[in-house]
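seq/struct pair 1
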Amino acid sequence: RCVIKELESLGKALYGAKLIAQRFQVRNCSHHKDPVSGSTCLLSMIENDNPHHFFIATQDQDLSNKVKKKPGVPLLFIIQNTMVLDKPSPKSLAFVQKLQTNQLVPEYQKQSIVELKEKEGLAKQEGEKRRKRKRAGGPNPLSCLKKKKKKTEEGQEPSAEKKKRRKRKRNR
């Protein structure tokens, strides 16, 4: 609502943008009685880890830089009449990596696993490194190929006879 109010206040220059914004679903924000600027409103809606999974579509460089600082907020912009989804920010990638590692094994389970390994004597010791044994390889597979048969004189004669036959020409 704040974005639409801001577009209305800017006048006829941005009338087309206002019509486009009105076509989309209007989300209620916390400042519907006293509207603030559009970028401030959008930033306040994605403030707490983007609970509604909003995308932000903007051409404003300042707003896009602020959005990139928040993890998990996709950013859209337009280049030559084409909508482009920006690649994930480093903050988003780090956040996802952290979530994935925490989801695999919780921290308290990691500690208990380490304690159990030490108790059973299975903990890895730094000085102990195992080497893989080199196994004896078999023969070279290329040396095991069957030998190609040589052409005999008898095999060449029938093919020579076929070449000597003439094709009949048609008269029209």
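seq/struct pair 2
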Amino acid sequence: KQAPLEAAVLQPLPVEELFSASADQYVLPILGETPSGEPPDPKKCSPREYLEFYIFPVLLPGLAALLHEAEKEKCFEGRRTKFIPSDFLTEWLYNKNPKRKDESFTELFSIPFVKDWLKDRPRPPTPLSLLLSEEEASILIQSFWRGYRVRCDSEIQELRQWQKKLREERHITEVVKKFWAKQEAK
């Protein structure tokens, strides 16, 4: 037997009740095209009119640009990327705002409201795995591996032990501190 909440959640949604108009009437406008006719008063029009006249003509080209950029950044290849779609769309919409028509391009982190938002909510640093290309990452991994293999060599181990012993006997860290103290005093 199902719990009452589960039974209610698993019931199909009556789509007819959600929308008063038939599905045929909900046709999205053509990309970048504003509907014909006089724009309605934004404070008095219906939500549908507001979307069709004020939101979709700006948002749809932005989403198209977002998809092109995502394709260029190889986001559809199933790999993690450094591309953040919401950042791209925020920057695009800010710069394409008709009120900023004569102003120059502004990068995302220079947008005033983004600066304010990030002041209160700083982002974690981007992982190195997303910043490096595959070639750079392979070079880095190979150099670490070669370094590890060299350090495993018995002669190198002997040299490292000798250096450690020498540092401890001659109090090298103290000598270095005194040297830098003299340099800073000059």
